[in-house]
Design brief:
Helix content is 41%, strand content 17%. By secondary structure, it is α/β, with parallel strands linked by helices. The protein has two domains: 9-168 and 350-369, Rossmann fold (3-Layer(aba) Sandwich), CATH 3.40.50.2000; 171-346, Glycogen Phosphorylase B (Rossmann fold, 3-Layer(aba) Sandwich).
């Protein structure tokens, strides 16, 4: 007689959307590497967009539920979360977030019968007042508190205890490869060019207008420069206007959403990342795996720097010309694209090891729950 195999335990992840971005990429990295014969991920979102991860999620065996947005239809959103958790018998619900506004959603999931986990992915957010209100509820709302950095944990939970879980990556997927450089070079005619770029969705915190000023200064000084903005998002109209205002039309490439980001990280000579705030941006971990020299904002936590000689912080209060001059120096002199794998893995950013940790973690929660 064949042994009956138990169905995998389904874990519900609540997140605003599953459109490629820092938080979403982390979740998908984990989902791809976790033992899906034991744990399946489902997703509760409030927005769907072309190019999001739904097709891959469903191909991996996951489900996607689209509910009304909490801030627009709070009563309906919370009622539907409770109903969904109870109906599908989700034992564990994880809310990934940059602020504590979502505390009521965790309480709704608890009413549905789930163990609740809050995962903090940022150390600041524009909605400070509402965040502080939500934070007062976090002790009651979240059974387990997780953060991507100590700063993100302090921001989300104040003096409450929390566990730091690094936003790990598939290191091998981002290693520098000449073939990747060649593919991007052929697509964009980059032979003989110095290639500068930014990878990130077009949101205000990414500080694209400052980035464009850096590009303007680079192009004034380096006639062989090509500049990329890899991503898309709500600030695209402002970025397009900034390109016109700075006379950068035809000189800065807006690639839109790309699924070949590892190829770009091989092709770039310098990554520029002047964010006004971040949690811990996965792009900078990926760039270090690719050995890509990066100039980053001094507003980003220093804990993102895992390697030696790859990442340099600069103030975003500086004249953009100073960023440009340093970027040009690096582009013309940096040749070592070796991955400092041991340092990245030892710091907790190897997603294979993280997936094994999560399996043990989920087992522990289920055992306490009396599975």
């Amino acid at each position: 007689m064949e042994e009956h195999l138990a169905a995998p335990v389904r874990i519900l992840n609540i997140v605003g959307a599953m459109y490629p971005g820092g938080i979403e990429n982390f979740i998908m990295n984990l989902y791809r590497h976790i033992d899906r014969s034991r744990f399946q991920f489902d997703f509760c979102i409030h927005q769907e967009r072309e190019g999001d991860y739904r097709p891959e999620i469903e191909a991996l065996g996951g489900r996607v539920y689209c509910l009304p947005r909490l801030t627009r239809h709070p009563a309906q959103n919370l009622r539907e979360i409770t109903d969904l958790v109870a109906r599908e018998h989700y034992p564990i619900v994880i809310r990934h977030t940059a602020n504590a506004l979502i505390a009521p959603q965790l309480l709704a999931a608890k009413r549905g019968g789930a163990i609740t986990i809050c995962h903090s992915h940022s150390s600041t957010d524009p909605q400070v007042f509402l965040h502080k209100i939500g934070r007062r509820m976090m002790k009651r709302a979240a059974d387990v508190r997780i953060a991507c950095t100590p700063e993100a944990g302090k921001w989300m939970y104040g003096d409450l205890d929390f566990t730091v879980i690094r936003n790990a990556i598939d290191i091998d997927a981002f290693l520098y490869q000449k073939e990747r450089t060649r593919a991007i070079s052929e697509e964009f005619s980059l032979a003989g060019k110095h290639v500068y770029g930014h990878v990130g969705n077009f949101f205000a915190a990414k500080n694209h207008l400052y980035l464009l000023k850096i590009y303007r200064e680079i192009l004034n000084r380096d006639p062989d420069a090509v500049c990329f903005c890899i991503g898309d998002g709500e600030c695209r109209p402002q970025i397009e206007q900034g390109i016109r205002d700075l006379d950068l039309a035809g000189k800065v490439v807006l690639t839109g959403l790309r699924r070949d980001v590892p190829d770009f990280l091989s092709a770039l000579d310098v990554l520029l990342f002047p964010s006004t705030y971040e949690g811990l941006p996965l792009t900078l971990i990926e760039a270090q795996a690719a050995g890509l020299p990066s100039l980053i904002s001094d507003r980003i936590t220093k804990s993102v720097i895992l390697t030696e000689g790859v990442v340099e912080q600069r103030s975003i209060d500086e004249d953009p010309a100073l960023w440009a001059e340093r970027a040009i120096e690096i582009a013309k002199s940096h040749t070592d694209r070796t991955c400092q794998r041991e340092r990245i893995a030892a710091a907790g950013y190897d997603v294979t090891a993280l997936a094994r940790w999560y399996e043990t973690f989920f087992d522990g929660l289920l055992e306490k729950r009396g599975r």
